[in-house]
Each structure stands twice: as structure tokens, then as C-alpha cells.
Specification:
Chain B: This is Carbohydrate ABC transporter membrane protein 2 (CUT1 family). Chain B: One of its GO terms (biological process) is transmembrane transport. The complex is a heterotrimer. Chain A is of the alpha/beta class. Chain A has helices at about 1-20, 30-50, 65-75, 90-95, 105-115, 115-120, 145-150, 160-170, 185-200, 225-235, 250-255, 265-270, 310-320, 325-335, 340-345, 350-360, 370-385, 390-410, and strands spanning about 20-30, 50-60, 80-85, 125, 125-130, 130-135, 140-145, 170, 180-185, 255-265, 280, 290-295, 295-300, 335, 360-365. In chain A, the strands form 4 sheets. Chain A has a 6-stranded mixed beta sheet with strand order 2-1-3-13-6-14, sandwiched between helices. In chain A, β1, α2 (about 30-50) and β2 form a beta-alpha-beta unit. The longest helix of chain A is centred in the last third of the chain and has 20 residues, at about 390-410. Chain A is globular and about 100 Å long. By secondary structure, chain B is mainly alpha-helical. In chain B, about 70% of the residues lie in helices and about 0% in strands. Chain B has helices at about 1-35, 55-60, 65-95, 100-110, 115-130, 135-140, 150-160, 165-170, 175-185, 190-205, 210-215, 220-225, 235-270. Classes of the chains: A alpha/beta, B mainly alpha, C mainly alpha. Chains in contact: A-B, A-C, B-C.
Chain lengths: ~400, ~270, ~300
Amino acid sequence: MKRAILFAVLFIFMFSFAFSKTTITYWQYFYKTKQDTINQLIKEFEKENPDIEVKHVTFPYENYNQKVAASLPAGVGPDVINLFYGWLPMYIESGYLMELPKDTFNKDYFDNNFYPFVEKSVQYEGKYYAVPTAVRSLALFYNKKILKEIGLEQPPKNLNEVIEVAKKLSKYDKRGNLIRAGFTMQPSGQHHHWLREVLVRQFGGVPYTSDNKTVLYDKTGAKSEVLQWYVDRIVKDNVGFPNFLNDDVTAFQSNMAAMTIDGSFRLGTLDANRNLDYGVVELPEYNGIKSNFASFWAHGITTNAKGEKLDASVKFLEFITSPKAMELWLKNTGELPANPEVALKYYDDPKYGPFLKGLEYAHATFFADEKAQRELMMNAIDEVYLKDVSAEDAWKKAADTEQKILDEFWNK
Amino acid sequence: MLKNDRKYFVFSYIILGILAFFMIFPFLWMIFSSFKPSWEIYDMKLLPSSPTLENYKNIFTFSGFPKWFLNSSIVAFITTFSVLFFDSLVGFTLAKYKFPGRNILFILILSTLMIPTEMLVIPWYTMSQKLNWMGSYWSLMFPGMISGFGIFLMKQFMETIPDELLDAARIDGLSEFKIYWKIVLPLVKPALGTLAIFNFIGNWNAFLWPLIVAQDSNMYTLPVGMAYFSSEASFQWEQIMTGATISTIPLIIFFLIFQKQIIQGIATQGLKG
Amino acid sequence: MKKGSLERKYTITAYTFLFVPIIFFLVVRFLPMIFSLAMSFTDWNLLSKDINFIGFENFAKIFSDEVFLKSLWNTIKYVIFGVPLVIFLSLIIAVMLNRIRKFQWLFRLLYVMPYITPLVAVSWVWRWFYQPPPMGVFNSILLNLNLSTQQFLGSTEQALFCIVITTVWVQLGYCIVIFLAGLQTIPLEYIEAARIDGASRRQITWKIVVPLLKPITLFLVVMQSISFLRIFTQVYNMSVQGSGGPLNSTKPLVLYIYEKAFVNFDMGLASSASLILFALIMFITFIQMKFLNEKS
């Protein structure tokens, strides 16, 4: 009898031990198609790893960063987390993210499996902290119907010609108010990136030194003329202005803008709009120079994950960044695979193609304080456009402010 | 005199009518927008040309919305009842008992009105963590369980109640709590109504704290949940307008029920000053 | 002797009733506030593990930060423009509304509608209204009237006033209801007596009614001032990316605090700024109490 009980206890103990699951938590911001995709991936992952359970939590995009930071001092955050690459330095610095295991995630791994800018952006002082599933770049979106009005099938390749076309396609009411933008001018959208990483280079400059410690856009190339050029398109050409129809996306979606610069992540939204017939081409070149801005959201492992959870997190991380996951991601969300080999077969796709080609010559800005660095670009434009400050002064002010932010970060 | 009066009345009605239109127009815009299909949302017309219930269908089948509605209701009702009870009890105590420390307590409570919430959310958050309240309704509600404003209102009100009434009840042998519960509370119904509605509105629409403390979408309240519709990829204006319309309806009902009491409540308080 | 024991009995009763509330105010209001005060003298950043005492460095920092000074000034502007406007308008409307009997309830309900609509939704709708042509409702009205269009929220000069107007629109209903309630307590005899004495309608309003409303006015002025000092949601939702733009021209103190705390996670600095806001609220309330009390 006693022995039977002993066996039973032992059996129950072993049974429960064998079936005890490791639960890890994954956080990302809410985006319907991404949420569904991750859910689908989790299901498959759990089938392959019956001893691991993944809890998936989403937060609204607007407050995601805040949510993440607030979870930090409390130590209640997730094990695996999705972060914008521009936030990585800040979170690494604060000890939130764990260095990824070197045996899997090393330089070779990134060089072999990802676009070149990824490796630079996920490492900090020689260590690797995050892996993306998908990447993004910019392209020129155009409204097919509007372009046909002047007999064009596609916008031209050169920037000056694009602006000429935009002027022809802009419409005004009898009092001179713009009622259809030839080209959206929205610094708060993707234009602050476009200005910084694309126009600056096309005007012969370099935005930063290669160690990301010094601002160069006010000292190299055409300097403040880049800003002047940008504001002139608003003031002189009036092909568009900031917040026309609330924002560039709204304007383009409602057939009120002929052309706009936007990211690959917009494809899904625009495809859902049945009143819109649009096409995508690579960003216009200028002075024979091509450039693009690349960015991505990457998954990292937080310092919360320890022991069994850490092992499970690493497994999960590998799973959601596998080529298979990338393809599913592309199919569901329209975001580009971070692995050039996976991307290869989409090079001739009319919509993904221009973005993928753009990735080859793209740069990812290093952000010490993403929001502040975005705002100072927007402010520089506003100061010239709204306050009649000279482009020279506004550009210098932006550069000085940005330099201060970088200095503060690197001297910490 | 009479003719003059009539002219004045017509004038009043016209002015008030124009104003009413001005006050209600954005509101109408919100409601009508909620019936517009997404591709019509940016048209400059007030009325939808092809009205649809699609947005309402979407919002209710959309996973979180019914739950957020429930959460908002729970939070608003419980905090409102708690505020009604404690605020009237404290107001009563401060108005009707003389005891050492009374004035200083009143001033301290009043001074909490001036502390901006923004100053407190970080400590509250840390506190919820340490005491393991995260993920519970309690964490959403606890900062609003008693309100300084309500105590102020109640005290002003209770002071108008004659002491003789309480003394008479004491002679009848009622306990102090019974006096509060049976004699005083029924007398201040209008004030309770006032407090109820303003508190309900405040908690129903609260944004900052629920946003910070709610751990996952299951615990979201309506205003916080609405942020889901303005994602990175697009502003779903039609869904925002639909959500806003639905979340306004309970408040209008609430206001209609308590309308009379509010007026009475404020009136008495105003006279007292 | 008997009096003394009665007093003691009441004291005990009072503190029994106050037990839970006192604990509540201590734990949920005062301790967090003290915590916040203490933090304002530290360099606590949500993202760093250690906290150091740094004296008044945060205060020196914010007072040399032009964005802080700008948002401080903006906050004062919100109060200066918003409070008189909302009080004055609501008083006039309430007096007018008080004279009529038919449909008074309907008008009251319509006027209070904006107040009970979620502020987030209100902000979005108004943001829409203020858009440049061809989207903005106001600009298309201006166009129809053959007037020149305005930038509204897109202009550094106009944006703050646009937000003031929206806020006045929201608060108007609340103030009207309260004024109206006050008006209805004024005994009709006062007004009749004045009328018999030959006072004009205007005289009755300004010489009799308004002075009698002083306590309510004081209450509303204080409440509205505090609410304008704490303005946040509408600015956050009406400016591009919640930045209080263009060029910080609409950024109030609370938004500055929010950004410092939840975007930069610099809790120490944010606490210092919230201390300034607290002082400002105290100061303005005090001045108003004093001023309005003396005049009566």
C-alpha cells in the first residue's frame, strides 16, 4: 500500500515535471495584421516546442514606448520584445536588453542573413542585441489616375523632373488655395528622414560621421541649401504644404495628392482602399546620386529572461526571424524580408520591388533620442516656412541641437 | 413693456438657437461620421451619402471593444459609489463635528485639488507594482476612490443642515452613523446627484492613468482602447468617431437622469457660497 | 465635565468616520506627492538603476530650457485668454437662458453636450474643423463668405487661440449649468422690486444679479483656472504628433512634464517641472480668492 502511494506520488511528480511548461511573454505594438501573424507563428512554435508557451501582448502604437519604459523599473516586462531600431541604443544603455548569445548571433550570422545596415544598427560596442523579421525603406508612391491626366504612366526618375510634374498636377481654387497636391510636403511623415538621409547626400553632403558621433550635414555638401530647396517647394512651387488634408497619408488616400514619399509599411493600408489606384517607383535620384532611408523593428531579449525562460526566448527569437517567418510576414503585413535571399524572389514585384532595390543603397540613421531628432528636423522646416528664419540659421540650429543630443548620449 | 418683452424673447431664442447649433455641430459631425464608410470619411459633407452600420458592426466584432465598455462601466460605477459614500461621510464629519484638527484636515484635503495628477502617476505606478495590484480593476480605480472636490462640495452642503435636526435625532437615540445615513444623506440627495454625474463623467473619460496602468488590452477602458484605432499605419477616423459616439451615449443618459438633481445641487451650494 | 466628555465622544466619532479617508489621502495623495517632491532633487531616470541627489540642478536646467519657459508662458496664456472668455460667455448665456421658460431644458442639454463628450473625440473633431482648405470646415465657410483662409492650427500665432476656443466650447456648458442653477436661487422679489423702482433690464442684470452670483463666480473662476492650467488632452490630440506645435507654440506645462517623464523618462526633471505647475496652481488660486473676496 505504502509503496503504491509512493509510486503514485513519484509518478505524479514526474508527470507534472515533464509537462511543466515554460511561459515566456512577447510584446509588440498593436497592428492587426502583425498581431495575427505573430499569433499564427506562436501556434506553430508551440507545436514544435510543446514545453514552451508564449504569451502575446500588444499595446497601442502611440504609447508603446512609454509602456515599455514604465515596465522597466518594476521588472515586470516581457521576455522577448519588439522595438524600433532607433530606440535600441537607449534601451541597451539602460540595461534593459540582454546581449544575444554569441554562438548563434555573431557578425557572420548577421552578414550572411541580413541586409548590411541591419548589422550596424543592432550592435552596440561590439555586442549584438536584436534581430529583425522585416525591414522598411522609402519609395515614391504615385496616383495612376492623376498622372494619366498629363499622359504619364510613371513619374520621372529625376528629382527636378518629378517636381516639374508635381507643379503641373497641383490644382488650386480661384483664390490660389491648393486643393490637390502635386507632391506631399509632410515633414512629420517620412520627409524628415528623406531630408536627412536622402536629400543631404544628393546635394553632395554626408549627414553624420561614420561613428555617428558628429553631425555633418551643416558642414558638408550644399549645407543649408538643402533646407532652402525643401522649403522652396512649399513656398515657391506650392506643390504641397505641411498638414495639407491633415497629413500626407490622408491626402494620398483620398486622391488629393498626385505623389508622395512613404514607407513600405504603407502598402497594406493603401491596398485596402478600393478607391485608390496607385503605383510605386524608387525614390527620385538627383545629381546622379541614389539614396534611401532604411529602418526596422527588431526583436530583443530583455534582462527579465533567465534560465529556462532565456533558452525558450532564444528559441522563439530564432523562430520568428527565420526565413519562413519572413515570408509569412511579407504575405500578411507587406513588410520586406530582412534577409536579402528571401527578398530576392520579390525583386520584380511591382510593389515590393522598388523598396527592395532601395534597400541596397539605404542608410539607417543612428538615433540617440529618436523623437527629439525627428522634431528638430521638423522644427527647422517650420522655422523657415512659418517664421521666415533664414535657412542658414535654422539649419545651424538643428545641427547644434542634434550635436548636443549626440554628445550627451556618448558622454554618458 | 410687453411688446418690448416679446421682442426680447424672440431675440433671446434666436441667439440661443444659433448658439445651440454651434455647440451641437461638432457633435453631429462626430455622429454622422460614424455612419460614413471609410472612403467617404474625408468628404466635406455632414450627412453620409451612403450611410452604413459597418463601423458599428466592426467595432463590436472587433475583439476588445465590448470588454472595454464593460471595464469603463465597472470602473465608473464603483468609483462613483465609493466617492458618494466617503465624500458625503467626510463632508458630514467636517461640517457637523467640532474636533481638534478639523480645519487643518479640511485645508489639507482641499489642497489635494491642486496637486496635478501628472505629479502622482509615477508614484502610483510604483505603488501598484510593489503591492501587486497590476492587472486588477483595483489598480485602475484606487486613485479615484475618494475625491477632494466632492468633500468640498458635500461639506458646503451639509453646513446648510440645521444642527437642531441632528440633536433631535440624537435625543431619539440614533447612533451617529445612523444620523448620517438616515437623516443627513436623504437631505443632500441633490448634491449626491451632482457629485455622481461629474464623477461618473470624469472616470468614464479618464485617459492618463488607465493608459499607464492597464497592463493588457483586456484591462483597457474606452478612451484608452480608442487609441487602437489610430495606429502607425493609418488613422481610422470612422472607427474613432464610432467609438466616441458609443462612449458618449451612457453619459447623455446619465445626465438626463440626474439633470434635475444637478441643478438643485449646484443651486443650494451656490447660495451658501 | 459633561461638555468635555461630549466633545471627546464627537472627536472619537469624527476620527472613526475619517479613518479610511485619512489613510487614503495619506497613501494616495500626500505620500506620492512627497515622493515626487523628493524625486525632483534627484537625477532619477526610469531607464537607469541608480538615483543620485543633485540639489537644485533640475530647476536650474528647466529654467534655462527655452522649451520649458515657452510652455510656462503658454500655460499662462491659456488661463489669461480662456478663463475670462468662458466665464463671461457662460454668464451672458445663463442670464439669457434664465429668462426663457419654454425649451430651457433642451437648450441646457444641448449646451452641456460638449462637456460630456470624451475630450479625446472632441479634440479630433475640432482638429478636423481647423484644417486648411479643402478639408477644413471653418476654412470652407470663410471661402464661401469670400474671406481669406486661415492657417489656424498650422500657424504659430493662431494655434493657441484655436485650442482656447475649443476648450471654451467644452467648458461652456458646465459653467452655464452652474450659473443657471445660481440664477434660479435668486428670489424673484429682488428683481421685481428693482423693476418697480424703474431699473432697466441691463441694470438689473449687472447691479443685482451679477453681484449675487459672486460666490458661484469665484467657484467657477478657481475651477476653470485650474483646468486651464492643467490643459493637456486637447493639445496632445490637436497638434501634429502630440508635440504641442507648431514650434512649441501650443505646448502647455503638463505636456512638457509628460514628455520629460514618458518620452525621455527623466523622472527627476519631470517632477521638478510638476512642482512648478503645483506652485503656479497654488499661487493663482490664492490670488483669485484674495481678489474676489476683497471686492465683495
